[in-house]
Design goal:
The model has no long low-confidence stretch (mean pLDDT about 90). Helices cover about 40% and strands about 15% of the residues. It is globular, with a radius of gyration of 12 Å. It contains three helices and three strands, in the order βαβαβα. The termini are far apart. It is of the alpha/beta class.
Amino acid sequence: MAEYVAGSFDCLITDVRMPGHSGLDLLQHLRSIGSAIPVIVITADTNPATPSHAMRYGAYAYLTKPIETEALLRHLQSAMRLTGRFI
């Protein structure tokens, strides 16, 4: 969170569970400082409230593990088109 500089990333892929802060904390922080960067949230968390929290905080996509490579790439490509960048 401390290293984020607006415009330095085109898309963020984060896990819900990380040491220190959760990916949802990171997502909420980005939105609170006005960042519109697309955020793809991944998780093995089976709590049914987690996807709704992620989407309420503005996640671009929410994927559960194990993640299919093709699905992740589709979401990443879609997010990059949204930002005007293509991969």
